[in-house]
Write a structure and sequence with these properties.
alpha+beta
Length: about 240
């Protein structure tokens, strides 16, 4: 018997075609002085009182049995500013194929802490050795609609750390300026009515409605990255922490 490859599970809609219903251009950007490695270290060493946003995925997942997971949120200090390292998942993966994500995954029994999970997964996925990682702190758990309770682990990584992406999991590793992501004018709330295909901003929440943040980013040579869903939500909460 020949085992056929399992086709990837794709979203029931094209997220890039979902209409933008709101941009937070009225909110302040995180000041450049707060986007320096020294300030970021001090912020996580003594975090202020702040309130993370509760997203639609989190609300839908309440009462659902969850599986513990963690992701590494890797910050890289470059001469042109701190960058956020992200990955594009292999297009043939069964879950979240081709999507933008942080390196990370499910907790193993041998993982004592979320940081252990995030570091192990980052080593497996992109070849980032733990010796090149300085963990700064943890963000609140983000529960995905698929039932994963994800702890984001914020870290500074050595800008000279060699990376070796695992081709079966990661198609690409790239960096986005933290300054771009910490400007809420680039945070797009997209809302979609699954029945009509129209913007659903005036509808009551129900099973046909889906809202999520997206942060599209393009390089100078025109390459486009569509950051959305849980990854964008965790970036949004990073903004809330840094602006507090």
């Amino acid at each position: 018997m020949i085992n056929k490859p399992v086709p990837p599970v794709l979203p029931p809609f094209d997220p890039e075609r979902v209409p933008v219903t709101h941009r937070d251009s009225g909110l302040p950007s995180v000041h450049a002085s707060r986007l320096q490695s020294a300030w970021l270290r001090s912020r996580f060493a003594q975090a202020p009182d702040w309130k993370p946003e509760v997203f639609e995925d989190v609300a839908h997942a309440r009462g659902v049995t969850t599986r513990q997971a963690a992701v590494l949120v890797p910050l890289v200090e470059r001469t042109h500013g701190v960058q956020l390292l992200l990955t594009r998942r292999n297009a043939n993966l069964h879950v979240h194929a081709g999507q933008i994500s942080f390196p990370g995954g499910s907790r193993d029994l041998d993982d004592a802490t979320p940081a252990d999970t995030a570091l192990r997964e980052a080593h497996e996925e992109i070849g980032l050795h733990p010796d090149h990682v300085e963990t700064l702190g943890l963000m609140p758990v983000y529960t995905t609609i698929t039932g994963y309770a994800v702890t984001p682990v914020i870290a500074m990584i050595d800008p000279y750390a060699p990376l070796r992406p695992q081709p079966s999991e990661v198609a690409e590793v790239f960096e986005v300026p933290l300054e771009f992501l910490m400007n809420p004018a680039h945070h797009e709330l997209r809302t979609w009515d699954m029945q009509t295909g129209l913007p659903a901003s005036g509808l009551a929440p129900d099973t046909t409605r889906r809202s999520f943040y997206a942060m599209p980013w393009s390089t100078a040579d025109g390459k486009r990255y569509f950051i959305w869903g849980a990854t964008a939500a965790m970036i949004r909460n990073l903004y809330r922490l840094l602006i507090a």
